[in-house]
Automatic annotation (TrEMBL):
Pathway: Carbohydrate metabolism; glyoxylate cycle; (S)-malate from isocitrate: step 2/2. Residues 582-671 form the Malate synthase C-terminal domain. NCBIfam families: malate_syn_G, PRK02999.1. Monomer. Keywords: Acyltransferase, Cytoplasm, Glyoxylate bypass, Magnesium, Metal-binding, Oxidation, Transferase, Tricarboxylic acid cycle. It comes from the Bacteria. Mg(2+) binds at E422, D450. The gene is glcB. Its main location: cytoplasm. Gene3D superfamilies: Malate synthase, domain 3, Malate synthase, domain III. SUPFAM superfamilies: Malate synthase G. This is Malate synthase G. It comes from Octadecabacter dasysiphoniae.
């Protein structure tokens, strides 16, 4: 039984109230009574509107379901479908042209393009790693991955591989920072002469790329270069193993890598009660105060990780130059759907978790705003708001943030919003969504994983969908990705806000990432998600090759590359002559991904993890990937592509596989042979009750089952 205290009509879990009053509030200048009064007004005044918006989602979905069922067996009529969606308010008028007027946006968001990380805020070590991933060693990234085709051989130092790393890095330097009449691979001295970098006595072809140095000008300890807004640091050390064997004594090349990072309270965490929320908020507080630490054992030693300091150099004109040592941090709040038992309203209803997050994470961010060298140098708070359906829900978020600012004594539009373009109704009305928050929008992003899950659920009654790999090849997704950039540029985001792209899901496949992910900056995206700090360093190479703002300028002249009709093309299977083996493999692949993710979510409270697929390839899984797999099986079940007995057999077969993949974990509880554990039941719920889940989301099932497990353990 949760111990609760009354605060302005709210019944608040005692541990959450204690955290807010004794830890989060001190130092913000906000009185406890004022905070709770404003919080209570937020819950009680905005809660009913929140419920109305969720009911509208369901009403619209019901009408779409009916439209498809009454036309079962008929050819899809695009014109009639478009008119129908407008008639029910699914598509709303775009309105007149406009440009956003968001102000006080930090350069990492507005004017420099680069990689972005997303990490669970409940894991302090991951959060610190992401924040500190602003700078990364290119030598380490090349050496420790398959980025150059293979990983190093053996346990000791692979000299041949190391030599190839050095050579490959010199190629990068020649491409990004060419020297007049020479190559970085041949030079022996780097020196600063009268404010100019000289390399074996020769200048850079673009002398303005020299940004600073440390140490003695004639023999610097580091040289700072700059290209497309991103910095690169050359580190010289004759006493190091690498530097002592290098003609120029170059020991490392460090790239400015993750310019920004999203600390996630949503898809990658498992926060179901006050205990979990306090952990999430505590880590966010540590980041905002700058004192978060994580203690870990590595190589038999105890290591304490902290946030990196800023970096200071001597600029070419002799002045001091200070650069951020950490990524600029966003906090991703929960969407509008879920409630949380940490707070009950005066009627005993659980408060909406998104309302909780907006008030508490912004309160915590006030600690950063009071610091001289913290997260935002322009006095902004950056909040990503996921899973919004259409302009009305974005406008609701805008109103929530305005109330929070008023309660906490912040200037209007201090809170900047990131709009996740990951629901179909948002994609169809993206311009209206941006308009609804045009004075605070600082980020839009294509989330193709959730977007695919919503695509399936929205058109569940239209027919059986293609296999997952083929869904990604359909025309709708190209239209979706192009439209996001085109509309962002049309609304004036270039130079004011980020236009982002989604995650690379294979953290061990860096060679493939280097080959493929360059398409994101080429598409005009200011940032794109990567799964690790190492991946951020490798992805940074793409932003040295591609001038994103030049690409955006070119795209602005070309007009829209896709139509709304293309965006709304439903990726149902045109050819349905699948063999039994193809059907079985598709279902088993989905089942394996669901089980591998859900068992860790339910049993261990891990909201994001690298889950081996059927071929033992590690894939990053979170609730978005789980949503796709569950909705896909639910769709095939509904249209009799497969029956329940076959799906249950696949779940049980894959449970055995997942048990084997986790055999080395002593804390792991096998699902087989009884298949009666809560985790297996949760996975079954996601599939067999998938059609009835709101928008096909996994959260209601996962939260309910995780709470069930926690209650069982505490009994």
């Amino acid at each position: 039984m949760t111990n609760r205290v009354d605060r302005a009509g709210l019944q608040v879990a005692a541990e959450l109230a204690e955290f807010i009053e004794n830890t989060a509030l001190p130092g913000t200048g906000v009185a406890a009574d004022a905070f709770w009064d404003g919080f209570s007004a937020l819950v009680h005044d905005f809660g009913p509107k929140n419920r109305d918006l969720l009911e509208k989602r369901e009403a619209i979905q019901s009408q779409i379901d009916d439209w498809h069922t009454t036309r079962a067996g008929q050819a899809h009529d695009e014109v009639a479908y478009d008119a129908f969606l407008r008639d029910i308010g699914y598509i709303v008028p775009h309105g007149e042209d406009f440009t956003i007027d968001t102000a006080s946006v930090d350069p990492e968001i507005a004017s420099v393009a680069g990689p972005q990380l997303v990490v669970p805020i409940t894991n302090a070590r991951f959060a610190l790693n992401a924040a500190n991933a602003r700078w990364g060693s290119l030598y380490d990234a090349f050496y420790g991955t398959d980025a150059m085709g293979r990983a190093p051989h053996g346990k000791g130092y692979d000299r041949g591989h190391g030599s190839r790393v050095v050579a490959r890095t010199r190629v990068f330097l020649d491409d990004a920072f060419p020297i007049a009449g020479a190559s970085h691979g041949d030079v022996s001295t780097y020196a600063v002469d009268d404010g100019q970098l000289m390399v074996d006595g020769k200048p850079l072809m673009s002398p303005g790329q020299f940004a600073g140095y440390t140490g003695d000008a004639s023999a610097p300890d580091t040289i700072l270069l700059k290209n497309n807004g991103l910095h690169v640091e050359l580190v010289f050390d004759a006493d190091s193993v690498i530097g002592s064997n290098d003609r120029a004594r170059l020991a490392d090349v460090r790239l400015e890598s993750a310019l920004s990072a999203i600390m996630d309270c949503e898809d990658s965490v498992a926060c179901v009660d006050a205990e979990d929320k306090v952990l999430a908020y505590s880590n966010w507080l540590g980041l905002m105060r700058g004192d978060l630490e994580a203690v870990l054992e590595k190589g038999g030693k105890t290591i304490t990780r902290k946030l990196h300091d800023d970096r200071t150099y001597t600029a070419p004109d002799g002045s001091d130059l200070t650069l951020k040592g950490r990524a600029l941090l966003w906090i991703r709040n929960v969407g509008h759907l879920m409630t949380n038992p940490a707070i009950l309203d005066r009627d005993g209803n659980e408060a909406f978790e998104g309302l909780m997050d907006s008030m508490i994470t912004t309160l915590i961010a006030k600690h950063d705003l009071a610091r001289d060298s913290g997260n935002s140098v322009h006095g902004s708070v950056y909040i990503v708001k996921p899973k919004m359906h259409g302009p009305e829900e974005v406008a609701f978020t805008n109103d929530i943030f305005a109330h929070v600012e008023n309660t906490l004594g912040l200037p209007a539009n201090t809170i900047k919003v990131g709009i996740m373009d990951e629901e179909r109704r948002t994609s169809a009305n993206l311009k209206g969504c941006i308009r609804a928050a045009k004075s605070r929008v600082a980020f839009i992003n294509t989330g193709f994983l959730d977007r695919t899950g919503d695509e399936i659920h929205t058109s569940m009654e239209a027919g059986p969908f293609s296999r997952k790999d083929f869904i990604k090849r359909k025309g709708w997704i190209t239209a979706y990705e192009n439209q996001n950039v085109d509309i962002g540029l049309e609304c004036g985001l270039s130079g004011k806000a980020q236009i982002g792209k989604g995650m690379w899901a294979m953290p061990d496949a860096m060679a493939a990432m280097i080959e493929q992910k360059i398409e994101h900056p080429r598409a005009g995206a200011n940032c794109a998600w990567v799964p690790s700090p190492t991946a951020a360093t490798l992805h940074a190479l793409h932003y040295h090759k591609v001038d994103v703002f030049a690409v955006q300028d070119m795209l602005k002249k070309g007009g829209h590359r896709s139509s709304l009709q293309s965006l709304l093309d439903i990726p149902v299977a045109r050819f349905r002559g699948w063999t039994d083996a193809q059907i079985q493999r598709e279902v088993e692949n989905n089942a394996q991904g669901i089980l591998g993710y859900v068992v860790r979510w339910i049993d261990s409270g891990v909201g994001c993890s690298k889950v081996p697929d059927m071929n033992n390839v590690g894939l990053m899984e979170d609730r978005a990937t789980c949503r796709i797999s569950a909705q896909h099986i639910a769709n095939w079940l509904h249209h009799d592509v497969v029956d329940e007995a076959t799906v249950l057999e696949a779940l049980r077969k894959m449970a055995v596989v997942v048990d084997g993949q986790n055999a080395g974990d002593d804390s792991y509880r096998p699902m087989a042979p009884d298949f009666d554990g809560i985790a297996f039941q949760a996975a079954s719920d996601l599939v067999f009750r998938g059609r009835e889940q709101p928008s096909g989301y996994t959260e209601p099932v996962l939260h309910r089952r995780r709470l069930e497990l926690k209650a069982q353990r505490n009994a």
